[in-house]
């Protein structure tokens, strides 16, 4: 039974990823980065505690989704506050558009509104129901794809009548 302890891998993968992005931005010491990673993991564990459903991995995906979209995600903001990084500084260091999905058995991210989704961590689901669950999946990912058609692309729908 992959219970709550199982969240550990997904959460540490996600926290390590955000920490790598911060490190790449430069100017943050290793000790600060280590604290940031631990604080972020702790904040995520607390936030996801009652929103982790290994039997229905997509359930609660929107709730667990970490977003920077010209607004700072509160979990990242909280961890950064612990090491004295302001939101302004975070925006300089991190992508202005970042979506990170932390789901049971899969952690994936997208940088930019139209970027491709990259998988950071994936593990097979027990019970071999993967195909079935993929069909019924309307997770945060799907909602973003559906809810976000940028106006510039709407010309595809126009028909020219002669």
Automatic annotation (TrEMBL):
One Pfam family of this chain: BTG
The Anti-proliferative protein domain, residue ranges: 94-113
UniProt cross-references to InterPro entries, sorted A to Z: Anti_prolifrtn (IPR002087), BTG (IPR033332), BTG-like_sf (IPR036054)
SMART domains: btg1
GO biological process, one term: negative regulation of cell population proliferation
Highest taxon in the source lineage: Eukaryota
GO cellular component: cytoplasm; nucleus
Similarity annotation: Belongs to the BTG family.
PANTHER family hit by this protein: ANTI-PROLIFERATIVE PROTEIN DOMAIN-CONTAINING PROTEIN, B-CELL TRANSLOCATION GENE
Descriptive protein name: BTG1 protein
